[in-house]
Amino acid sequence: MVSTRQSSDALLDRIGLHPNTLVELYRYMLLSRALDVRAWALSRQGRARFVITSRGHEAAQIGLAFALDRGRDWICPYYRDMALVLGIGMTAREIMLTIFAKATDLCSGGRQLPMHFSHPRWRIISGSSVVSTQILHAVGLALSAKLSGEDVVAVTCFGDGGSSKGDFHEGLNFAAVHRLPVIFFCENNGYAISVPQHKQMAIRDVASRAAGYGMPGVVVDGGDPIAVYQAVREARNRALAGDGPTLIEAKVARFTAHSSDDDDRLYRPREEVEAALANDPIPAFARRLKDLGFLDETTDRDLQASVVAEVDEAVAFAEAAPEPEVSDLLTHVFAEEGESP
Amino acid sequence: MSMKNVLQAVHDALDEEMARDERVILLGQDVGVRGGVFRASDGLLARYGERRVIDTPLSESAIIGVAIGASIGGYRPVAEIQFADFIWPAMDQIVSEAARMRYRSHGTWGCPLVIRTPYGAGIHGGLYHSQSIEATFAHVPGIKVVAPATPRDAKGLLKSAIRDPDPVLFLEHKRTYRLIREEVPDEDYTIPLGKAIVRRPGRDLTILTYGMMVHESLKAAEAVAADGIEVEVVDLRTLSPLDKPAILESVERTHKVVIVHEDSLTGGFGGEIAAIIASEAFDTLDGPIMRVAAPDAPAAPFNDRLEEAYLPSAPKIEQAIRQLAAY
After folding, report:
1. E strands of chain B, at which residues?
2. Chain A nearest-CA residue for B165
3. What tens digit of pLDDT does each residue of A69-96 get?
4. How far is A280 from chain B (nearest CA, A)?
5. Residue B109 is nearest to which of A118, A143, A174, comparing CB atoms?
6. Counting CB atoms within 10 angstroms of each CB, which of A96, B36, B58, B216 has the fewest?
7. Res A9: pLDDT
8. Is 0.95 topped by the overall pTM?
9. Would you list the DSSP string of A10-39?
10. What distance in Å separates residue B80's CA from the closest CA in chain A?
11. pLDDT for residue A12 is more than 90
């Protein structure tokens, strides 16, 4: 295992991110948070039926997104990856269309629960609600990349609970044996709905399992987007060099209940949640950008206002979008006549 | 034309499709160096290399899940599950993932993959090398289920399955592998999925069946022909999509039906066929819809006597024919 917990400020020069890119990265975190807050409000207002979001995971997911070749690398996300898919290229409108299950929802045309992402342009592959099944799809996509020689990687995300599944084991083992260009990205927030990590596994770090498969395991501070970016860049370079997969574990905190149908007061100490909120990665990153002189108060205020405006517009757009036609119920069970796979 | 058994026909279909389309890859436990435990992929590793003929870890869920990913990535994987009895660990990937990918992504992504698996009893395989699994999968929208009975069909249907844009479960009855032989065209040909075939025409009674039971049914039909009972044997060939017109046309000709399958009776695919006939051809029936199937034991036992007692066979089918013909 390699620890990348070090002062990422010192890494700024070395990793070669332009200050404008860092501000852009910050804006995506803000946009995800604004969408997130609005989604929960819509749920409480009875306008959104179901909400499950990435609050607390944004830094890890945006750091991941920016380290990828967006639109070329394959993405097999899980349901908590809203910030990731925004960082890859999905829009606030597209997120709201899937929340409202509208006909023009690109993820599934209103068929799946919200946050089951899929996008034709961004190579985001539809997942089910069955935890960790997507890990194997990423391995298969990495196999296809290896066979075709395309210089891309496949990335799949899952939680700490997801690492208990058989598909996690089968996927990591398969990818390591065949040295496939895949990045396994575990977002460890310490909870699988209500079950805490110590009842999920008898180890401290999911990444330590990597050794058993013959691949590097990396623990990274998921509150630090630059550290995540760097860890993913290294894993991606290894994968493209033919050196096989990497297991990255981003330590994050979940700021909300599991979903809008959950009440985490039943199982989670309030002090723990408050401590996590006090360490919110988004204002922390803003402070760093300001300390580095890349962001000033005026720009910050403008960014915060602009993402809220973007969300306002997306909600209005998506709520007004058409519902699916009942005649759509039986389309795409199989390929339509003349449709290529 | 060449005389081939079912196994050789499967092998030839794989070989020819790999030669025709570089996107076709094989993956599974033992498919490479060993050429498959039944040798269906014999020689293909040498011909196409280990990039396209992939020995996987012994992980059924991964064999299917990786095939799903590779199919989305532009390949045409043919995944082998060594025995149908071992498919259950991959059930989640087949049902929750492959069969739903197109529907749940509203047509953005699809899974053009084939799952080949030997199934069925009569080879002394015991409880875990004998199961019939078709009813479970025929229930699942989004995946096609094919069960050929002859070498010519095995080759033509497997080629269609490989070229199909959607996932196909291709069930190869392992008793037919070396037992059933016929002349098979050497040239490229396909047989469309979803089309039944009349194996033997007859006017008194229809048998609807598939797989190994086609051959047992033909034997039974021959046996009763001596007494003037003319039985029509319809080989369904594909369970999903099901050739309903062929079923209804035959029933409308003969007015009596026996459905035969090796799978156990309760919840078997025969129940679905019976329901279709009962609701869409009730007025044409001159007798009860009968089913000949294995009893509701978990699978065929290993012991010879028990296995024989378990399996539907020509004498049991003959008995049902005579009973219904006399109705």
Report:
1. 2-5, 24-28, 53-55, 76-80, 114-119, 144-146, 168-173, 181-184, 197-200, 205-209, 231-235, 238-240, 257-264, 290-294
2. A341
3. 999 999 999 999 999 999 999 999 999 9
4. 34
5. A118
6. B58
7. 57
8. yes
9. GGHHHHT--HHHHHHHHHHHHHHHHHHHHH
10. 15
11. no
